[in-house]
Amino acid sequence: MLELFGKDILQVLLAGILVGAGVPAVFAFGMRALAYADGEGPDGAHHRLGKPAAAVCFALVVAIIALGITIIVASGLGYHVSVERGYPTILR
């Protein structure tokens, strides 16, 4: 019993750290990349990789938020979200 509790609490802790610190860190990296895109290089040209990197970061943040909302709404309606197939699926 205590072994299962320890395993479950570790999973909750890791998820909390990942979502609680990981998502804001990805957002901050996106903001930094966006600021990098507006800067100029030594020859006066703008940095090209900043905006695509920022777009990827922001898309990842939006996808994680959408997945979180989906899990909350699905559980409220009596469903659950499964990722057994590699992508989120809402099941009864």
UniProtKB/TrEMBL annotation:
Record key words, sorted: Membrane, Transmembrane, Transmembrane helix
Membrane-crossing segments per the record: 12-33, 53-77
Superkingdom of the organism of origin: Bacteria
UniProt-recorded name of the protein: Uncharacterized protein
